[in-house]
Automatic annotation (TrEMBL):
Translation initiation factor 3 N-terminal domain residues: 19-88
Superkingdom of origin: Bacteria
Organism this protein belongs to: Candidatus Magasanikbacteria bacterium RIFCSPLOWO2_12_FULL_43_12
GO biological process: ribosome disassembly
PANTHER family assigned: TRANSLATION INITIATION FACTOR IF-3, TRANSLATION INITIATION FACTOR IF-3, MITOCHONDRIAL
Name of this chain's protein: Translation initiation factor IF-3
Origin organism lineage: Bacteria, Candidatus Magasanikiibacteriota
Pfam families assigned to the protein according to its UniProt record, in alphabetical order: IF3_C, IF3_N
Family of this protein: Belongs to the IF-3 family.
Gene3D superfamilies: Translation initiation factor 3 (IF-3), C-terminal domain (3.30.110.10), Translation initiation factor 3 (IF-3), N-terminal domain (3.10.20.80)
GO molecular function: ribosome binding; translation initiation factor activity
Membrane-traversing stretches: none
Keywords assigned: Initiation factor, Protein biosynthesis
NCBIfam families reported for this sequence: infC (TIGR00168)
Length: 182
């Protein structure tokens, strides 16, 4: 039998704004369409002023003393706020931690490839986590792995300013660090 999965409603992009009769304050500070301060007045007078202009009274800052309301067309106001929120969301880049596998016996060309990968990740705003996995007898030679980290760090430092967000540390058979752009 199929399990019913109900789609949860999406979170609203913008916060809820009280409009017109839903505003509970008795006195409000009113701003006109251009954003100029009209003054502090009773809610009934502010509502009648908004109706005269065939607009809505929207509560912008309910926590103010007195609450701040603006006379605008609510549909246009809501559209503009959603547009700004979408634009902000599109421009936001969440940085990820990208892993790069190295080895004690890595060749020069392979090291160059890993460096260009790391450089690309760092330029994009991500962090880089180089990992060296020690296998077999390599576990006894962890000092070589730390030297490889120094080499990788110095070569990357020649290309761009970077810093260790987490110094190279050994955990069981792995040696890891986290590198970020300055």
């Amino acid at each position: 039998m199929r399990i019913s999965r109900k789609k949860r409603p999406d979170k609203p992009i913008i916060p809820h704004f009280n409009t017109n009769e839903r505003i509970v304050a008795t006195e409000v500070r009113v701003l006109d369409v251009e954003g100029n301060n009209v003054g502090v007045m009773p809610i009934t007078q502010a509502l009648s002023l908004a109706r005269e202009q065939e607009m809505d009274l929207v509560e912008i800052n309910p926590k103010g003393a007195p609450p701040v309301c603006k006379i605008v067309d609510f549909r246009h106001f809501k559209y503009q706020k959603e547009k700004e929120a979408r634009k902000q969301k599109a421009n936001a880049h969440e940085s990820e931690v990208k892993g790069i596998r190295l080895s004690i016996r890595i060749g020069d060309h392979d090291m160059g490839v890993r460096l260009t990968q790391a450089e690309g990740f760092l330029n994009r705003g991500d962090k880089v986590k180089p990992v060296i996995i020690l296998k077999g007898r390599e576990n006894a030679k962890s000092s070589l792995a730390f030297e490889m980290f120094k080499k990788f760090h110095n070569l990357l430092l020649e290309k761009m300013p970077i810093r260790y967000e987490q110094e190279p540390t050994r955990q069981a058979n792995q040696i890891t660090a986290i590198i970020a752009k300055k």
